[in-house]
Amino acid sequence: MKLFRVPNIRLLSCVGVAVTVSAVTLTSPASAQDAKEAMAAFIDANATSYAAVAQEIWELAEVGYMETESSEKLQGMLRSAGFEIASGVAGIPTAFVAEYGGGGPVIGIMGEYDALPGINQSRSAERDPIPGKIAGHACGHHLFGTGSVAAALAVKEWLDETGAPGTIRVYGTPAEEGGAGKVYLYTSNPDVASGDGMAMAYRAGATLANMEFMQFHPTVLYIAGSSRHLITEAVRGEGALLRDASGHRFMPDYNPAAELAPRDVVSQAITEQMAQTHHPCVYLDLSHLDTDFVRGRFPHIARVWAEFGLDITRDRVPVRPGAHYMIGGVTTDEYGRTSLPGLWAAGEVTSTGLHGANRLGGNSLSDLLVFGKRAGQYAAEYAKDNSAAAVEDSAVADTIKWALAPIERQETEGATESPYQIQYDLQDTMQELVGIVRTQQEMDQAVDKIAALKQRADQAAAPGNREYNPGWHTALDLHNLLTVSEAVARAAAQRQESRGAHFREDYPDKDEEWGKTSLVVKKGSDGKMDVSREPVMEIPGELQAIIEENR
Prior knowledge:
The protein contains 15 helices and 17 strands. The protein has helices at residues 32-45, 47-60, 68-80, 141-162, 196-204, 233-237, 263-277, 291-297, 299-307, 363-385, 393-408, 419-433, 440-457, 470-494, 541-549, and strands at 2-6, 9-13, 84-87, 96-102, 106-112, 116-117, 135-136, 166-173, 208-209, 214-221, 241-243, 282-285, 317-326, 329-331, 350-351, 517-523, 529-535. The strands form four sheets. A six-stranded mixed sheet has the order 1-2-5-8-4-3, with helices on one face. Strands 15-14-9-16-17 form a five-stranded mixed sheet, with helices on one face. It starts with a strand and ends with a helix.
């Protein structure tokens, strides 16, 4: 257990195990060391029960934004100890804030409890997959979440025994990580997916490519507070039907493959159907399928739907497309090298050409595994032969000044803009003008609106302290979000054809000449964004032969 002291707030982190309150009490300490020892003793006395809860969460292995039971277990522990619980915080069903006590100081404790998809390992040191398991706690979040609750309970007991003033808050934090989906209003990505890597690389002088290709997933849960729950294609693969607000099954009207059509086709069809019906969503229907099969095949999704009072076997569930995967990004070669000497990149931040114009499901793993290894290997070799670049003190000082500006701005200086409002206006602009169905006029409007939003972002104010100031974080995020959004809008406006994840209503067909071209985004000598056409790399002969064989 570590106690970090900063002005106005104390942050307690504890890696351990936690749950019920035993008969062991915390005596009034004579010193900070005595307090630490007393709280550690309290946790040790309850270690067995805490370990049992951690094991239960490990067994559940619920992935990000679907940690329904894991979150409830932790909330239940806190609720039984007298904490007041606010569930569904920030519109995320599995997020919560638990609070106990009153007055200052405020003790904030963060806990995570999400598992990682595709991991099904037992506790063995050898590779030992668990049959039927689709996720696992490779990062130890079953311990993290439970340990954080244990810490909160220990501090609560100490406050009760000593009568000391203070407030404890436990921030239940679901999910993590992501790409650049945050530039859109509706997305399957977590809140941190703000395109930071792409924006930072661009500002440093690296080139971006294929930014117009943002893949949209057709079925993201559309319930207030739950826009980031992705409903996998497997649901439609097992026979789920898409219906509009009137109950009409509309996909056969658009494509012979109906619900089994590619993601971009289904997303476009849903968008058109919503426009025709003047309704903000469509509905997934599994009511015609065998009840036991559905519940056995999709237990996690069933639990998520149940949180909102919906029965997966009976009720139609509202969905709509959401930004899902950024196909474009920082340009790299086959070794993960970018156009900027000394910079390597791998994963969703990059544009490798591996995904073409529309990523296949699961193909991002190849991107990570192949190019992640190569980028790490060659970056390490480069580092052996090259020293770190010098950084001028003045540059550091300027960056610090820029970063602190939103906190220091006051309304009397004319800085009345809310970073949250600017972010919403940007997301709404991208959703409406550079979304699934695009036109030249709308994208030109988007570029103009983004320019205006940049000016507003430079005046965003986030008064408060540095320790916990989400408005400050949002104000800083804006600069990355705006950079990525501008790159997407400008590239999409230039590609006058429809291809893969990029659909132009005014240019609905593929153009073979455009198929030979990549759009490259870089910062010009005047500091403005420049978009140019460059020929795509030639396909190696052996791969071209495979393509020809399968036409």
